[in-house]
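Example with several molecule types.
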Amino acid sequence: MNSIEIKKLSLNFGEVVVLKDLNLTIEKGEFLVLLGASGCGKSTLLNCVAGLLDVTDGQIFINGQNVTWLEPSQRGIGMVFQSYALYPQMTVKGNLSFSLKNAKLSKDEIEKRVQNASEILQIEDLLKRKPAALSGGQRQRVAIGRALVRDVEVFLFDEPLSNLDAKLRTDLRVEIKRLHQKLDNTMIYVTHDQIEAMTLANRIAIMRDGLILQLDNPKTIYNFPVNKYVAEFIGSPGMNFLKGAILPNDKPTFKLDGGWCESPDLSNYMFYEPIKTETQAWLGIRPENVVFGDDAKNMPVKFSLEVEVVEPMGANTLVWSKMGGQEFRFMVDGNTTLSIGERVTVGFDPVHSSVFDLDSEDRL
Amino acid sequence: MLTKVQSERFFIGSIMLAFAALIMATVGIKPQLFQNLQFLILLVSLLLVIWIGFKAGKFEIITNRLRIRAMGWLIAATFSAALWSFAQKSTQLLFPALKEFRKIWNTFEPFALFATVVCILFALLLFIVGSRDSKLERPGFIERSLVNNLSSKIAALPMVLTAVGVFVIATLWTVYHSFTNSRMLPKSEFIGFAQYERLWSSDRWYMSIENLAIYGICSLIFSLFIGFMLAALLDQKTRFENTFRTIFLYPFALSFIVTGLVWQWILNPDYGVEKIVRSLGFESFVFNPLYDIDIVIYGILVAGLWQGTGFIMCLMLAGLRGIDQEIWKAARVDGIPMWKTYIQIVIPMMRPVFITTLVIIAAGIIKVYDLVVAQTSGGPGISSEVPAKYVYDYMFSAQNLGQGFAASTMMLVSVLIVLIPFAYLEYGRRKHA
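Resulting structure tokens for the full complex:
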């Protein structure tokens, strides 16, 4: 059963078109992450679902009910904001129970729900404190609790971890995932952090300029990005791109500009449709898929390059170098010692690569 | 053997003495006994310098960390001394070119001399402070409290003196003289509480207090309420917000006198609202608040509100803009009606703005004077008198300073009665929290 259905949603701010003809279906219990750079319309979309923005055109259904023109409180949603948006002069308990009191629930019921939510979020000790006396992580827990007590079907998160420091962010990320596994509610989560998106999501919607570029599970998005923008956006460090042309033979090959190494054989690459003519294209390969040293010898494509910058990251070390005038990064084991200026042999298997058209930047 | 530090201290000390001698010679000392004191001091300081020179072998200001700053002041002193000397006849004789700018030099002459003395004083002060500590590599107490940010302290000094002079000394002086029978000029002839007895037995004072109470309470409530309502309405992403804000704020740009005159005309039965409505055909229409003893203060109140609410609105609007937009969103998601969001969430969050506004309104209430003068001059009869007008009239028209001082002391006392518990609640509690 579909939990949320968005049909032909459009939103304009005056002349500016923010969302255009957007369709999106979210299943019950699904964790959907809206991912994109700032200004791509992801928060706007979330606000439309929440009912905080009036849509220009289109319809939104939550649990089969058309909620396009309903007030936010009547849509059966709970929302968590980036700045926590706690009511500063109320205690934690006051924050949790304010909406319930307003909905005229019985005292016992309120007590029960607050108790339940604070147990789940482990904020029982904090109930008497005011938000000013809480740390960022605790505040965000309370904010989640405020959505939790309302006993809603759909949770909306608007960059909830962006105001926290790196350590807390990781901790709370896991907790949100646990919460989702426990409650099994539908959740929509807006973020610009791809790690959060990859770790939390059942499906990720990558947005750009008010359009969803790709909507798929994290694995597919990571391995088969539909265009160069998605390929660049997902993955850290970012994908390497090599310019060249595809030669359509029985065995299609990728002729690299400059011809600084043998042309990678693309016969095992899954093209959407067979290439008929010679096509200018980008060959994308993730730094994680590039191997180095002895392993490289068995790879179909191998070449040597000069180490320029070494970034040790603990488990791995990221090596920066240049290949035919373009940046080329690859990962080596954290224990490898490399010196600047050293020439090393690296290689990769074209099966792991992605090929994009040079002009349209779409996957081929 | 003297240490480097000691020699420096003595050296600076002797310069101090010489400077003192110079000042004494300039000012001149009257009593016979001290007539030649400056020469004596100069002699002592000279002897001291010679002695130190003999002992230490050289005169150097090396150890003193503040010497650069002191030198700066000395250079400044030299400049102003030069400026002063340009105005002197003998210098002008030496350099005839200076004569052409005689006017400029003459203007600067007195300032330059004064500045020279002040600059030298500062330089000496720095030398003393710098050489005070035995371990010169580290600032001592005096240096930390006095010399750090010296320029800002110097700059703040006039304002500190003004504040102390006006607010503390003048207030005390006023209270003191309210117990005397000063008439046109202040006297120190005490008559106890007589001025207060007279004050509290005067109908006019009672009327003033009553009017101030009505005006104060109404103006406080209405300007807060109207100001906040206007701000809340403007905050709803209103179109032409800037235009409305300007219109609402415009009256604030007018002085009370102009406001008073405008409203006097509007409320005047001969050419104001009453005239217009009557000319529309309602012949028996009566609307002349400024001529009605019972409601005249409300006529003044209307003018005051018209003038002041725009500003209150701007303060409130600024406060509303300071509220995180996500709070509004959260309240909407929680299903809290807008009026309830305002009352239970937004207004408590705007507490600091409300306090500021309250202080501004309260100050405006206490000092209301020109509005009354422009609209009614306290009439009809004494029915629109206010305390500030009472004070002014007694001090400058009735030439009874003592009575005016007593009234203003009463105003001060009433302000303090309101202010002290408020300040205690506001700031005393924060200390404990």
